[in-house]
Amino acid sequence: MDSSPHDHGADGTGGTPPAAHRSEVTLSVDGKPHTLLIDHRRVLLDLLREDLDLTGAKKGCDHGQCGACTVLVDGRRVNSCLQLAVSLDGCEVLTVEGLADGDRLHPLQRAFLDRDAFQCGYCTPGQLCSAVGVLAEAAAGHPSHVTGPAAPPGRPVALDAAEIRERLSGNLCRCGAYPHIVEAVRDVAP
């Protein structure tokens, strides 16, 4: 069983919560199984950054408004700053650290580099994870607010610039690299 190197209470005091407020949870993070004793109030972002030393997902607003903490849970995009870790027993979590295959970058990572789709880079891990989710959602035929009403249900949705902008609208970039981010996602979209 992995034990937390930092047995923090959710309030950051460092105090250990009573056993009644902790549960053992087993989850896979970037393909590696972990069994942890988790405070019921601990969010996934803090577990990733502080307990598993995966610092790619960033704590931006800590209110689910900026998307800097976006990761994939069972293939779906989540704001890890809002997701209670205890609710993820048996789930698969994919972070930006898990996108590459060894030294081979994920196609979106390569496209972000090729298109210069970042400036300071703070939002980039969340943008990348969100973009991976966008590609999967569109391929599965999930419509967005801008998907035309004539689009056949259940069929893949073509990702033009408007679709990409709408689907990534929950991920903010304070540097304003949006045009290059959209181009990078278009490069990878089928």
TrEMBL record:
Pfam families: Fer2, Fer2_2
InterPro entries: 2Fe-2S-bd, 2Fe-2S-bd_dom_sf, 2Fe-2S_ferredoxin-like_sf, 2Fe-2S_ferredoxin-type, 2Fe2S_fd_BS, Aldehyde_Oxdr_Iron-Sulfur, Beta-grasp_dom_sf
Domain (2Fe-2S ferredoxin-type): residue spans on this chain: 23-99
Keywords (A to Z) from UniProt: Iron, Metal-binding, Oxidoreductase
Compositional bias segments (type: Basic and acidic residues): 1-10
Chain spans, region Disordered: 1-21
PROSITE patterns noted in UniProt: 2FE2S_FER_1, 2FE2S_FER_2
Protein known as: Oxidoreductase
